[in-house]
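Quick start: what a row looks like.
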Amino acid sequence: MKVLLTFMSLFMINAFAIGGKGPLEMGKDGLKNEKPYYMDKVGIDEHLGDQVDLNLMFKDEGGNAVKLGKYFGKKPVFLMLIYYTCPTLCNIHFSKMMKTFRDFKWDIGDNFEFVAVSIDPKETPKDAKTKLDTYFESYERKHTRDGWHFLTGSEQSIQKLTGQIGFKYFWDGNMSQWAHTAAAYVLTPKGKISYYHYGLSINPRDLRLSLVEASDNKIGNVVDRIMLYCMQYDPSKKKYAFYAYNIMSVAAVITVLIMLIFLGRFWFGQRNTEI
C-alpha cells in the first residue's frame, strides 16, 4: 500500500511539474483518455557524442561572467538543466540527487565537476547562490565547495545549450512555470555528451560507470574498467546492462590465468622433487 501511494504521489507531482492536469483530464462526459497537449513540447532527443559549445557565456553564482568551458578540460562534468525557483520537480530531483551524491564514494569536485544551468533567463546569480547554498549544506562535505557551479544566462545561451543537449521545455502560462522532464547528463572533459541519466534518482553504479567512461578510463580503478568492459549501455533500458560476450571473454581469461598458476606450481613442485 505504501509503495502504491508513493507511486501515485510521484505521478501527480510529475504531471503537475510538466503542466496541465495529467494524461487523464476531466471533461463533461467524464475522464478523457487523450494525449496531453504538452507531450510534444517536453522531452529529450538524445545527441550522444555531440559537442556542446564551450564558448557559451553564463554567469556563475557570484555574478561573474564565465565561459561554459571553464568547468571542462580535466574532468568529466555532471550537468543538470533545471531552474532554481521551480516549485515542484526540480526540488525533488535535486533532493534525490543529493542522496545519491551523499551515498557516492567520490566527492563532488574530486573526479568530476557538478554544473547546474538554469533554463529560466529571468533568474539571477542570487537565485543560483541561494539554491547552491541550500544543497551544499545538505551535502555535508565542506571541502568540496570548489566542485559546485550553479549558472544563469541569457535566453540565447540557454537555448543553444539546451538545443545541443536535446532538452525540450516550454513555459506553461496556465501553471506559471516551466514544463520540463527530469534528467541529468555526463559530458567528457572536452564537452562531448557521453551519457543521459533519466528520472529523479540515479543508481550509484551507473553514475560511477558513466563518469569512468566519460573520462576515457582516466579515473576509477581496475575493477571499474573490468565492470565497464563487462557492461554496455542499453538504449532500450536507458542504463548499463551486462554484455554476455564480454563476460565470457573475461571469464575465459581468468580461467586461463588460474590454469597457468596451477600448472606453474605443479611444474615447480616437480622440479623440486627431482632435485
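That is the whole record. The chain has two domains: 2-33, 43-216. The mean pLDDT is 79.
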